[in-house]
Amino acid sequence: MPDRNLEFGKYGAQGIKGHEAVARQLDRLAGFIATPVTARRGLMARLHYLTRTPHARAAARDAGLTVTDRTLKAWLDGKRQPTRQNLERIDAAYLTVRRANVSRHLLARLNRQGRGTRVEFHPLNQSQVPRPRQRVIDYRTLNVRRWDRIVAAWAAGDEGALDEAWVNDVVVDLGSQWGEYEYVTAIGFAA
Question: Which residues are bridge partners to 144 per DSSP?
Answer without folding.
Answer: 117
